[in-house]
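Supplementary material to the annual report.
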Amino acid sequence: MASGMQLSRDELGAAYRRMRTIREFEDAVHTEFAAGTIPGFVHLYAGEEASGVGVCMHLDERDAIASTHRGHGHCIAKGVEVGPMMHEIFGRKEGLCGGKGGSMHIADLSKGMLGANGIVGAGAPLVCGAALTAKLLKTGGVAICFYGDGASNQGAVLESYNLAKIWNLPVVFVAEDNGYAEATASAWSVGGTQKGRGEGFGLPSREVDGGDFFAVYEAAGEAIERARSGGGPSLLHVKLNRFYGHFEGDAGTYRLPEEVEAARNADPIELFRQRIVEASLIDASELDAADREIEAEIRACMVAAKAAPMPGEADLMTDIYVAY
Amino acid sequence: MSKKSYRQAINEAMRQEMERDERVILMGEDVAGGTGAAGDQDAWGGPMGVTKGLRPQFGPDRVLDTHLAEISFVGAAAGAALTGLRPIVELMFVDFMGVCFDQILNQTAKFRYMFGGKAVTPLTIRTMYGAGFRAASQHSQCLYPVFTHIPGLKVVLPSNAYEAKGLLIQAIRDDDPVVFFEHKAMYDDEMEVPDEPYAIPFGEANVTREGDDVTIVAFGRMVNFANEAADNLARRGISCTVVDPRTTSPLDTETILETVAETGRLVVVDEAHPRCGMAGDIAGLVAEHAFDSLKAPIKLVTAPHAPVPFSPALEDIYIPGVDKIEAAVAAVLDHDRKVAAE
Amino acid sequence: MTVESRRPTRIPNWWEPEDDGDKASSPEENHMAEIQPITMPKWGLAMEEGMLARWAVDIGTPIELGQEIMDIETSKIANVFESPVTGVLRRRVVADGDTVPVGALLGVVAAPEVSEEAVDDFVRTFLEGFVPEEAGAASGPSAETVEAGGRRIRRLKAGPDTGKPIVFIHGFGADLSTWMLNQAALAEDRPVHAIDLPGHGGSEKALDDGSPAGLATAVIDYMDAEGIESAHLVGHSLGAAIAATIALDAPSRVDGLTLVAPAGFGPEIAGDFIAGFIAESRARKLRPWLEMLVADPQMVTAEMVEDVLKFKRLDGALAALQAVAAANFDGDAQRHSLRDRLADIAAPVHVVWGAEDRILSVAHAEGLPANVTVTVIPGAGHIVHMEKAADVNALIAGA
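Predicted assembly:
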C-alpha cells in the first residue's frame, strides 16, 4: 500500500477516473442489456476494476495485454476509447472492430490490447508471443496475460507458464480469481493453489487482494519491473469479486444473497476513494465532479452508439484476409 | 539453378527469407535440437533435417527450440505474428493439430475479421502430412481439408521442390496466416530449383499436363501420381490435362472450370478422406458451375474413409495410386462408349 | 531450304572452293556408302529425352541434308527436325509418339546398295552399345555465373577456346536458352558465348540502364572479363539493337553482326505483347502472348510458358522487365532508332527476319542501307532463330 501512495496526484486521479469509467460503462451496459438493446451476450467487469487498472497503470504503448471474455475493463484500463467500444458492443459499423467482434472479441492493437477472448485461457500463448516480439525487437515491452480462475485449469495456460519460463519472456500472468468459473466455485475446481502452480513452474508468484488497488499496483509493479529488466515471468493471484453474474442474464443463484451483498459492500472503488480522500491527496468534491463527467460521457456514448448505423452487406466479406 | 531436394528447397526458402528480413524467425520442436544439452546445438535440424543449419547461421534468438507442447508455442507464434514478427512455426505432424487447433482455428484465423480488419498476422505454419511412411494413424493424415474449411487461413500444398521453395517464400512474405503442408514422402525428391529467391503467387493453379480428353485435378503428392498416370495414358492415346491447384485456399476455381470446359470430363485425386474433402469440393464446384460441359460423371480417387493403417500391406493399398487414377480416367472415358451403345 | 534472299547471302568469288558450308555436295561415295544413324538431338541444356511426334518420310525415301524428316517434341519446345545426313531412309527404329532419351537411335540412313543384313547389324550394334546419358549427369557445357563489370552474369560457353568467337545476345524477357538450337551447331570450331543480359535469366536483376546503350556496356564488360577482343555478335530483337549499338560505339570489338528481328529498325512494336508479357502471371493467360512470337502456335509448349514464368517469379525480375520495357518502348512506339546510323557500321551486317513476325514487323527490313544484307524467312515469326534454326545457323556460319 505504501508504494501505491507514492503515486502523484495526477496518477491517482487518472487511476480513479479509469476505475470509475469501467464501473459506469459496465453499469450502463447492464441496464441496456436488460432492456434488450444489446445483441448477443456480455460479461461485466464491475467489481474487479482495481485489478485491471492497478496492473495497467504500469504499462505504456510498448506493452501488450491479452484479456478474457470479461474484457471491457481491461480495454479501458489499457486506454482504449469508450466511444468506439460502446459502438462495438452494439454491433455498429463504427465500432472498434467494425461490429464484427462484439463484446467478447473487442480489441485495439494500436493500444497494445490484443483482444478480449471467447476461448478461456487462449490469451496466455498469445502473450508469450507478444513478449517474444518485445524481447527480439528489444522494445523494452512486457506482456500481461489476464485470465480467470477457470482458465487457470486450461492446459494452454499451464503450458504458457512453462514456455515463458524456459524462454525467459517478459510476461506477467495475472490470474483474476473472482471465485467462480461460470457457475462453479474455484474453491472446488482448482486443485492446489494458483501461487503453488506458478512456483511449480519456477515463476515468482504472489497472492494479492484484488479489492485493494494499492496492493495490486505494488505487486504488479514488482512483477513488471522484473520482466522489463530481463528477470523473466511472474504470476499474480488476484482475489476479487464480480458484482454481476457470469454473463448478463445469469440469475446467479449459486451465490448466496449475503455473499453478493458483502462483495458489493467491499467496493474497490469506494475503498480507493476513501483512502485518497482521508489522506487528503484529492478532494472529495473533485472526485464527485469526475463522477458526473464520466457519467455524462458514458451516457453520451451510449446514446451515440444506439443511434449509429449498422454495417451493411458490403461489410460481410471484408477484413477476412489482407489479400486473397 | 541446381538440383535440389524438396527438403533442400524448403530449407533454402527459409534461409533466404531469414537473411532478407530479420523479423522472420523459426520455432518448433527440435528445429535445432539439442538446446540445453551438452552436445550439438543443431543436432537434428528438425525431425527430417529440413531446418538443419539454420540455428548455426541465425542463432538461438531466431531459431528457437520449443518444449513439446503445441498449443503454447503455436499460440506464441501467432502472438508474435500479431505484434510484429514474421514467425515460421513447425507443427511437426499435422496430426498434432488436435492439441493446438484452438490457436489456429479460433485465434489466428479470426484475428483480422474479429478485430475489424486491423490485425495483420504474418504467420507461417509448416507441417508434415501424408501416408507412405509406415507411421500409422496418428502421424500420416492429410488434414488440409479441415484447414481449407476455415476462412482466414491460406492452405498450401507444394507438389515438388520447385513449388515448395516458391510457395514457402510466398507464405513467409504473405501478410495472412498460411498453413504450409509438406508431404513427408517427398523430402528426397530432387529437381532443378533456381538458386535465387522467387515467390509463386497463391490461388494460381499450375497446369502440368495439357490434354483434350480428361481433366485430372490433383493435390500435393498426388499431382506427381496424376502426371505419371497422364504420361502412361498418353502412350495409349488418351490425353489428359493435369491441374495442380497449388493452394486449396485460395482455390483457383477459374482454371479448374476452364479446363473441365475444354475436356468435358473430370477426375479428382485427393489423398485425404472422401467425406468433406477436396475431391468432393471440386466435384461440387464443377457440378454447380460447369454441369453443361460435362460429358460423363465425375470420378473421385481418394483414400478410403478409414484411418491410415500401419501394416505396409494395408498402407500401400490405402494410398491412391497411379493405377487407380488410370482406371478412373478409363472409366470416365468408358461412359461415352456405354452411352453410344445404348 | 525455304529461304528467300532479297540479297544474296554472300556472292562467292570464282576462285573460292564452291560453298564450303555445303558438305552434302562433296563426293557422294564418301557419304552414301556409309550407314548413318539419326539420333535424338539434344536441344538445350535441360533436354534429357524427346518424343518423335511424327515421321515425315517413309522407308526407302531418299533424304537430303537439312530436309525436314520428323517432328520432335521436348518438354521445352516442339519443332521440326532436319536431317543431319544425306542418303536413303532404311529403318525407322522409333515409332511415332514414342519418347526416347537424347542420343537414342531414331532411324538409319544408308545408300541403296548397302545390304539389309548390314543395316540390321548396324542397328543391333548401336542398340547394344547405347547407354543413355544419366538423368542430370553433366554432359557438355553448362551455364555458369561469372563476374563482369561488377555484375553477376550467367553465361553458357561452348566450343573450343580458339577461333573467332561468337557472342549471342538475347532479347527482351528472354535468356540464353533462346539459342538452344543455335549455339551447339556453331560451336564446332570456335568459342560461342551466350549470356543472360542484366535483369534477365540467371544474371543479376539490378539494372542501372535498360536502354540498348546501357545494356551494351554490360556486354562489353563481359567481353572484357572474358578477354574477347572482338567477336561476331548475334543478337535477337532488343539484343540485336544492343549488338548494333556495340558495333557503332565500339567498332573494334565487332567482327560481324547477325541481327535477328532487330529492335531499333522501325518506329513501332507490338506494345500489347510487351504489356501482356509483363502482366500475366498465369500460364494459361501468358500463353497467347508467347504464341505471338511464332508463326506456328503449336511450337509453344507448356514448359516453355512455365520457364518464362519461372524467370518472372525470381526476385527483381519483374522490376527489371518493367525497367527495360520503359527504357525501350512507349506503348506501341520504340524509343530508340538505329536506322539512320546503320550505314556507319563498319563490320558486315546481316539482318534475318521472319516474314510473319508479329512483334517487330518485317517491314522494318525494307529500305535499309546498302551495307546491310537482309534475309527474310517465310513461315517464321519473331523467334526465327528457333523456328528455322538450321537456316539461321547456316546464315551465321556463312557470315
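Residues 4-315 of chain A form a domain with the Rossmann fold fold (CATH 3.40.50.970).
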